[in-house]
């Protein structure tokens, strides 16, 4: 819209941040409902008021395979102040036992808020003495349950809570919280079958229309000097068309599944080509591969597979080969607390489809496993960043 030209890129990104923060705030009560269902506050209380995540998992009787997911829920609850987290140095024994890299993870502690969720069960033997020294606080657990009732009935909330309660023998392997709540459908299957009530594709197209002009204005140099680029899982070509219009000599190719490419507009008279394929199988060769908001939809192993195929598609770095990623880097520098809070809330959203929003160390681990040697993060897109990844 023409009137949006009145605003700078950063003003528009700040506006997007406010809208996302308000919309995603729904996941605050979702995280609280998960913690309440799993009796996390009670587990920490029984452990003396402070505990690591493996200790909480064991005390609460949660399947150990849910540890990383629970860490993400606790990240939301610590950012919002329900719990606190203090990073502790690992002992050599603990590090070896956990396979960690120098820390055994944060120690989670009760706050006044989470203390009010403690129901007051009998303390474990290890913490019995500590528990009896102080009177239990009055529990607001039932009151909070009443206030959480509207949230608990939603598909996202019920799916993620049911997923945490299940063990590996109760559901087919790989069933995500979203699929658990939607009769086994993936988010992409639902988008295809229920486009009127679940306009996923339209939402992605609107994001391209909003973000890509800002990308080209603020960091268009990442495309300069390239002669060819493949937009992986590029849908109907919104992002590729914008790049091609800005760089007429750049040959842009969109790779997506056959059923998506069948809906693509005619490429006649443009520099955008459409190729049907599967990013998990192979990617057409080009100077650069473009992954806009793709990797956050997939778990670490799948991301490594995709990136290995990207690496095979591009030339060495010294002749310009690179992968251009647009995604979140959680915890990237910002003076606005809503910035990080929005990132970790979005992480719960993509966790429901078995995706992840990652911090720099988590990205680095994936990059190294995929065989890349270097990367550069450019944090100029609000809660998202551009990452240049080099072979």
Q: How does this model look, in words?
A:
- About 45% of the residues lie in helices and about 15% in strands.
- The protein has about 400 residues and is of the alpha/beta class.
- The chain folds into two domains: about 10-90 and about 105-120 and about 135-185, Arc Repressor Mutant, subunit A; about 200-390, 3-Layer(aba) Sandwich (Rossmann fold).
- The protein has a seven-stranded mixed sheet with strand order 6-5-4-7-8-12-11, sandwiched between helices.
- Helix 14 (about 240-245) links the parallel strand 4 (about 230) and strand 5.
- Helix 2 packs parallel to helix 10.
- The longest helix has 20 residues, at about 200-220.
- It is elongated and about 70 Å long.
- It starts with 8 loop residues before the first helix and ends with a strand.
Give the neighbour order of strands across the main sheet.
Answer: 6-5-4-7-8-12-11
At CATH level 2, the architecture of the largest domain is: 3-Layer(aba) Sandwich
Number of discrete domains: 2
Could you state the CATH homologous superfamily of the largest domain?
Vaccinia Virus protein VP39
Q: Report the oligomer.
A: single chain
Q: Note the overall shape.
A: elongated
Supply the helix-strand structural class.
alpha/beta
Question: Fraction of residues in helices?
Answer: 40-55%
Report the sheet with the most strands, covering strand number, pairing sense and barrel closure.
7 strands, mixed
The Rg value, from CA coordinates, equals: 23 Å
CATH class of the largest domain, named: Alpha Beta
Give the termini distance in whole angstroms.
39 Å
Number of helices: 18
CATH topology of the largest domain, anyone? Answer: Rossmann fold
In round numbers, the mean pLDDT is 86
Strand % is 15-25%
Uncertain ranges: 92-103, 122-133
Order of helices and strands: HHHEHHEHEHHHHHHHEHEHEEHEEHEHEE
Number of strands: 12
GO molecular function, one term: O-methyltransferase activity
Protein name: O-methyltransferase domain-containing protein
Domain O-methyltransferase dimerisation: 20-119
InterPro entries: COMT-like, COMT_C, COMT_dimerisation, SAM-dependent_MTases_sf, WH-like_DNA-bd_sf, WH_DNA-bd_sf
